[in-house]
Design goal:
This protein folds into two domains: about 1-85, Arc Repressor Mutant, subunit A (Orthogonal Bundle); about 110-175. Helices cover about 60% and strands about 10% of the residues. It contains eight helices and five strands; from the N terminus they run αβααββααααββα. Helix 1 packs across helix 4 (about 70-85) and helix 7 (about 110-125) runs antiparallel to helix 8 (about 145-175).
Amino acid sequence: MLEFAILGFLYDAPLHGYELRKRITALTGHVRPVAESTLYPAIKRLEKAGLLARETQPGSAAAPRHVLTLTGAGRDELRHRLREPARSDITDENRWFTVLAFLRHLESPREQADVLRRRLEFLEEPASFFYDGERPLRAEELADPFRRGILTIARATSRAELTWLHDTLASLDTA
């Protein structure tokens, strides 16, 4: 997801590494903090693959800054990853938020809707964090108030997301 976020933020505008790191941390930092030791190797991989370009600009107060720009191939790669996200990009909430943060870069409402429908299908599958054998347990069936809290919060979050997905899909389908 780090490479995905790098491509997504650079799609919007050229950035230097520090600003890119701040933006990625704001999006995913509460879950996966972004260290320089992971960011800069990812930037180098994307640069080596021809997806990013680096330009040195004079610094405003000190040393020169390296500004990163997305290449045409990088723009294509981001749109490809958005059109065809991995299953884990759909099912993992944190990865899903990263996809959602950049989904607007798919210009076709049909393509955007296709991605949202994959998330909708996943959310509509019966699931729980806790089971009695093969049967998913509902919050009301749990004596443990903490596990009941997990399921209560998850159900409320899922309901809110399902409402948003249905509304957004209806809007995209009429576009």
